[in-house]
Amino acid sequence: MKHIPVTLIVAVKNEEKRLKEFLPSVAAQSFYPAEMIVSDGGSSDGTWAYLINFKGQAPFPVKLLQLFGANIAKSRNEAIGTAKYPVVAITDASCVLDKAWLREITAPFELPEIEVVSGRYIPEANTALQQCTAALTISESPYFTKFLPSGRSVAFTKAAWRKAGGYPQWLNYGEDTYFDLALRKHGCTFVLAPEAVVYWEQRKSIGDLWSQFWCCARGDGQADAFPNSYRYIISIWACMLLSVLGGIFFRPWLLPFIAVVFILISVCLAKRKLPSAGIRVWRWAPVILLVVKTAQTMGFILGTAERVTYCKAPGE
User: Which residues form a coiled coil (predicted)?
Assistant: First the structure.
C-alpha cells in the first residue's frame, strides 16, 4: 500500500520528561512522516535542547519553531501553516504512539474525498487512581457517528483546516473540540481509523485531575460547546448541594444518609465498569466523581461568564 506524504505536527511546552518516551515512539514508526514540525510555546525546562538533539538524530526531516507565549492553538496553526504537504497528522507529546499509528491514520487519505481521520487513544493506567479515572471518565468506545477526535490522535487535509478557520487561537482550553465542531459544521468528511492508536497516561494526582477537567470545561464554556450536557451536570450538582444545605440547616441526621447513597452509587458505577477490580480501585470512585463533576461545573460556569464578557462568539 502506497502512502501519501504527510507532515507530523506536535505542539509542546515544558515537556522534557514526556519527550523521553514520546520521541522514541515517533522514531519507531513503521511509516515515517515526510517532515515533522514541532512548535514550542516557550519552554523553560530542557525541552528545546532535547528537541535539537532529536532533530540531529531523526531519520526524517524535523523543523523546530519557537513561539514564545503561544497557546496550543496558535502553536498548531503556525506549524500547519508552514507544512509542505497537503495532509497533516496531529498528536501530543503526552502520548506514546503505537508503531502503526502514522501509517493507519494516513491510509484513508488514498481516497480523495476523505478530509478528516479520527484516531483512537487508549488510557495508560498503572495506579488505582488512574484505573478508576479511566473507567469513569473515558468513553468505552469511539465507534459512534459523532465521535470528536482529540488533538492526541487526528489527521486532516490543510484544505479542511483552512475551511474550518484553523484552531481557535482565542481559546486556551478545549481548542481541539471547537476545531472538530467547526470541521463538521463546514461539512468535512470524517472517517475512523480504529488501528491508529496512541497511549495516553492518566493524571497521577487529584490536583492534576481537577486541573484537567476544570480547564476543559472552562474552554467549553468559552466556546459554548455541549451546553445541554453541562446544564445536566450543573443541575445534578445543584440538587446535591441543596440536599446537603437542607440537611445542615434542617435535618442534620440526613447528611450521613446522603453521603452513604453517593458513595454507594459511585462504587456501583465503578464496579460495573471495572468488574474484576477490587476495593483498592473502587474506593476512588466517590472522590473522582466529586472532583470531576465539581470541576466541570465550576469551569463551565466561569467559561460561560468569560464568553459573555470578552470571548469571541462561536462561529465568528
Answer: none
DSSP label of 203:
P
Instruction: Give the Å distances, CA to CA, from 133 to 10, 52, 199, 210, 234.
Output: 26, 35, 15, 11, 20
Residues 6+ apart with CB under 8 A from 210: 291, 295
- Report domain extents, the chain: 7-201, 206-309
Helix/strand/coil (H/E/C) assignment for every residue in 30-91: CCCCCEEEEEECCCCCCHHHHHHHHHHHCCCCEEEEECCCCCHHHHHHHHHHHCCCCEEEEE
95-97 sheet: strands from edge to edge:
62-66, 35-40, 7-12, 87-92, 153-157, 116-124, 190-201, 95-97
Residue type, 239: C
The CATH homologous superfamily for domain 7-201 is Spore Coat Polysaccharide Biosynthesis Protein SpsA; Chain A (3.90.550.10)
Residue with grid cell 480523495, as numbered in its chain: 112
List per-residue pLDDT tens for the chain, 316 residues long. 467 899 999 999 999 989 999 999 999 999 999 999 999 999 999 999 999 999 999 999 999 999 999 999 999 999 999 999 999 999 999 999 999 999 999 999 999 899 999 998 888 888 999 988 988 887 655 554 567 888 899 999 999 999 999 999 998 888 999 999 999 999 999 999 999 999 998 888 999 999 999 999 999 998 888 888 888 888 877 777 777 666 666 667 666 666 666 676 677 766 677 777 777 788 888 888 889 989 999 999 999 998 877 655 444 4
List of residues 6+ apart from 5 with CB closer than 8 A: 33, 34, 85, 87
**Nearest to 178, CA basis, from 41, 314, 12, 10:** 314
Amino acid at 16: E
DSSP-assigned letter for residue 166: S
Q: How far apart are CA 226 and CA 216, in angstroms?
A: 12
Residues in a beta bridge with 39: 11, 65
